[in-house]
């Protein structure tokens, strides 16, 4: 075999090399794992892990169940209200803490504490007070997500360029105008980042809240499917929740990117 | 002899009871002329400008504008910033109109006024651009246009061309002189460049540092009526730059 | 002449962007005041008859102290702490190793990334009820719960830390002919340190959520039992006290982690 032929064979071999695969988008990695899942399911190694194809059929079934849509509505409702409140309450508190050193000194201790604390432990305490329904889940969502909004808003506010605030004063802006026209827009990139992170936490919050209560929403469905060993439906639901989570986060990331254009020129 | 539009009387600024930034600075700023405040880094010249702007309250002394004492920022003084201080999410037009918007001027009127000054500083065609799309020189023109829209008698400029490259800087200096021929403003211009001070100013106040106080006041008396290009060739210009550098050296070394 | 608000009102706006940070002795006083303020509000709110299930601060404090001395806490934690400790160790050590490996080995990223992203953003807690079916009602279930909630966060952040190494530092290392091992030890790891510790903090938080969920859902022994039992007999003061004890332990662990980070890598950026 001449050296030229040798080279050609080497080249064609490398076309299929693992290295090339590595440089492709991670999306293909997801496909890879989906195939692995299908395989494992079919081999029946783990009764808890049915093949992906069966889960797909279960998903179609789910879409026709009233119980699914009720749970979906409940989840969407409590998520939306909880997240909305977190943002609407959290941003002003963050602005306050960024502007007023006094309030920062009083509040930062608690905000930082609850940011990392296992809020889950508080849910059993909420149940007797707020009942087994929307209110407790909404409270859980707020308790999971508001702290990030506060902290990121505060960070954005404290990092506003000095000269922008001075410029506002020079041109005669009142304190409120400076806050609303200059400080909050200037802090927007950090605020949106905080909102994105809070969405992640809110999703966790709404699910955890429902799971701990175990009787309502998706949490209730998870519990039911497990106890009746309807694993295909269980996984279908898990995937639905995961996909919902990603979609919402993706939307917020889009928003983040639109705002990012001016973050660079600060 | 022109009128005095602004006076500083014995201005002193002390931080945290021990650091003396400015000491006994008394100045007269003539109306319609450009006064440069010149000094090495850290001599307190920006602090002085901010006191005059009303952003910093002096520990001692007072500022008077047209005979009246001032206590803070006012419509009589506009500031052009070293780092441009433009709103990054707003277009050039919106940025220039900001001062007017703060005063409650309705949209049509303020856009009209802004467009006029955008043209005057040479930014026509860039009204809808954002700061991140502009060069340093263009950003500063925006800041200048903004300062002009509010029609203050006094224009304060804090090392406005220092964040810009050399060629652009020269152009901006020339354009400023041309602009001042049209707009009759009293300008206080802070700089650390001797050349810039002599080139632009009718009065150069030299500040020495630590503590910041007036070392000397020089009157360039350079003929700027004619061709601006020839200024840097005038013997008087070259002499003065040397002279001032000579006396400043002792403070820098 | 324009009139601005007097100096005191604008003082707050003045401080904006100046980066002025408070002095250390000041902070302690404010912290104590803050505690006092919150506990007072709690006391008042508790007595305000909002709900029978919301006891005032004093009752909870008393219950807390009594439970320490009665041994209820020590008994319960003796049950709950071992799996927590094991789970935390696996989370920390395993997480950092996996994260660093993915960052360093060029092939690994492609395989592991989707898994890590899923585990980080999706509500993994939904899987916890399923653990009893695999591992039964046991400490193993608890450890697994802790690990699946905590480790991905540690691993992902360690990975990001490695990825974020300044390319010019890598070039520098190469130009000085440093071996791969030396580059890893002296350039990459130190520069990744901050993100690794951020990941540890997130992972530990996640781990605590894991243990709480495990206690509440899988098997109410130890701490979980204390909570559910006291709620059942309507001793809300004890229930709250137990919850507070969990929060305190989580807080102390995180605080300890912060101290370790400070000790290992002192930074000047502190206020």
Please tell me the CATH architecture of the largest domain in chain B by its name: 3-Layer(aba) Sandwich
- Greatest interface by residues involved: A-C, 69 and 71 residues
Task: Report the C-alpha radius of gyration of chain B, rounded.
Answer: 18 Å
Quaternary structure type? heterotrimer
Strand order of the largest sheet of chain B: 6-7-8-3-9-10
DSSP helix fraction of chain B: 25-40%
Helix content of chain A: over 70%
CATH homologous group name of the largest domain in chain B: P-loop containing nucleotide triphosphate hydrolases
Strands of chain B, total number:
10
The CATH topology of chain A corresponds to: MetI-like fold
Domain unit count of chain A: 1
Specify the biggest β-sheet of chain A: none
Cα gyration radius of chain A (Å): 25 Å
Low-pLDDT sequence parts of chain B: none
- Principal-axes geometry of chain B comes out as globular
CATH domain class of chain A:
Mainly Alpha
Q: Architecture of chain A, CATH level 2? A: Orthogonal Bundle
Beta-strand percentage range of chain B = 25-35%
Tell me the layout of helices and strands.
The complex is a heterotrimer of chains A (266), B (253) and C (271).
Chain A: H1 3-15, H2 18-22, H3 26-43, H4 52-62, H5 66-99, H6 101-116, H7 123-130, H8 134-158, H9 162-170, H10 175-213, H11 217-227, H12 231-260
Chain B: E1 4-15, E2 19-30, E3 34-38, H1 45-53, E4 60-65, E5 68-69, E6 77-80, H2 92-96, H3 98-102, H4 107-120, H5 136-149, E7 154-158, H6 166-182, E8 186-191, H7 194-200, E9 203-208, E10 213-218, H8 235-252
Parallel strand pairs in B: 3-8, 3-9, 6-7, 7-8
Antiparallel strand pairs in B: 1-2, 1-4, 4-5, 9-10
Chain C: H1 7-15, H2 24-47, H3 57-70, H4 72-104, H5 108-121, H6 128-135, H7 139-163, H8 167-175, H9 180-218, H10 222-232, H11 236-264
């Amino acid at each position: 075999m001449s050296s030229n032929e040798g080279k050609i064979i080497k080249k064609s071999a490398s076309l299929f090399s693992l290295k090339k695969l590595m440089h492709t988008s991670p999306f293909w990695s997801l496909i890879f794992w989906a195939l692995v899942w299908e395989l494992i399911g079919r081999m029946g190694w783990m009764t808890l892990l049915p093949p992906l194809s069966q889960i797909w059929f279960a998903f179609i079934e789910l879409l026709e169940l009233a119980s699914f849509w009720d749970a979906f509505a409940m989840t969407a409702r409590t998520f939306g209200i909880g997240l909305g409140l977190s943002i609407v309450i959290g941003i002003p508190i963050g602005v306050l803490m960024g502007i007023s050193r006094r309030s920062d000194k009083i509040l930062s201790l608690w905000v930082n504490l609850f940011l990392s604390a296992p809020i889950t432990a508080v849910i059993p305490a909420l149940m007797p007070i707020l009942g087994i329904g929307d209110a407790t889940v909404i409270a859980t969502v707020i308790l999971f997500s508001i702290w990030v909004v506060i902290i990121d808003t505060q960070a954005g506010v404290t990092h506003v360029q000095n000269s922008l605030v001075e410029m506002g004063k020079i041109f005669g802006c009142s304190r409120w105008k400076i806050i609303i026209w200059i400080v909050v827009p200037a802090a927007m990139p950090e605020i949106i980042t905080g909102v994105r992170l809070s969405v992640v936490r809110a999703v966790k919050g709404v699910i955890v809240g429902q799971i701990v209560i175990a009787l309502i929403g998706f949490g209730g469905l998870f519990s039911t499917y497990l106890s009746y060993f309807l694993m295909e439906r269980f996984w279908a639901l898990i995937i639905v929740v995961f996909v919902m989570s990603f979609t919402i986060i993706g939307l917020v990331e889009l928003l983040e990117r639109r705002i990012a254009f001016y973050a660079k020129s600060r | 002899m022109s009128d005095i539009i602004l006076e500083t009387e014995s201005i002193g600024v002390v931080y945290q009871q021990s650091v003396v930034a400015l000491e006994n600075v008394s100045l007269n700023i003539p109306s319609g002329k450009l006064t440069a405040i010149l000094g090495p880094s850290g001599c307190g010249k920006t602090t002085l400008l901010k006191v005059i702007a009303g952003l910093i309250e002096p520990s001692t002394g007072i500022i008077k504008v047209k005979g009246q004492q001032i206590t803070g920022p006012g419509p009589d003084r506009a500031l052009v910033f070293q780092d441009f201080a433009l709103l990054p999410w707003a277009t050039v037009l919106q940025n220039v109109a900001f001062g007017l918007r703060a005063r409650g001027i309705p949209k049509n009127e303020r856009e009209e006024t802004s467009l006029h000054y955008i043209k005057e500083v040479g930014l026509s065609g860039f009204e809808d651009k954002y700061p991140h799309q502009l060069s340093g020189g263009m950003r500063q023109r925006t800041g200048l246009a903004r300062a002009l829209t509010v029609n203050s008698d006094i224009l304060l400029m804090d090392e406005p061309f220092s964040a810009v490259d050399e060629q652009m800087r020269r152009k901006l200096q020339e354009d400023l002189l041309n602009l001042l021929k049209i707009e009759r403003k009293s300008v206080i211009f802070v700089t650390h460049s001797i050349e810039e001070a002599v080139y632009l100013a009718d009065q150069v106040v030299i500040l020495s540092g630590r503590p910041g106080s007036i070392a000397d006041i020089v009157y360039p008396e350079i003929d700027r009526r004619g061709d601006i290009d020839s200024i840097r060739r005038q013997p008087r210009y070259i002499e003065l730059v040397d002279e001032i550098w000579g006396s400043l050296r002792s403070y820098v070394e | 002449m324009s009139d601005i608000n007097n100096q005191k009102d604008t003082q707050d706006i003045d401080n904006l962007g100046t980066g002025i940070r408070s002095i250390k002795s000041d902070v302690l006083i404010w912290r104590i005041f803050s505690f006092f303020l919150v506990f007072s509000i709690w006391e008042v709110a508790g007595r305000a008859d909002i709900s029978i299930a919301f006891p005032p601060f004093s009752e909870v404090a008393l219950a807390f102290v009594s439970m320490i001395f009665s041994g209820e806490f020590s008994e319960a934690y003796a049950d709950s702490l071992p799996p927590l400790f094991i789970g935390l160790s696996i989370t920390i050590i395993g997480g950092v190793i996996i994260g660093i490996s993915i960052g360093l080995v060029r092939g690994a990223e492609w395989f592991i990334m989707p898994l890590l992203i899923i585990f980080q953003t999706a509500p993994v807690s939904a899987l916890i009820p399923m653990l009893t079916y695999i591992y039964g009602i046991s400490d193993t279930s608890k450890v697994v719960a802790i690990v699946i909630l905590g480790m991905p966060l540690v691993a992902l952040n360690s990975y990001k830390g490695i990825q974020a190494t300044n390319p010019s530092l890598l070039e520098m290392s190469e130009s000085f002919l440093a071996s791969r091992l030396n580059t890893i030890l002296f350039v990459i790891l130190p520069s990744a340190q901050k993100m690794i510790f951020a990941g540890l903090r997130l992972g530990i938080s996640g781990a605590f959520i894991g243990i709480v969920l495990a206690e509440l859902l899988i098997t109410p022994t130890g701490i979980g039992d204390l909570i559910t039992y006291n709620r059942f007999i309507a001793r809300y003061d004890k229930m709250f006290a137990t919850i507070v004890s969990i929060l305190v332990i989580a807080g102390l662990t995180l605080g300890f982690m912060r101290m370790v980070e400070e000790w290992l890598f002192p930074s000047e950026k502190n206020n």
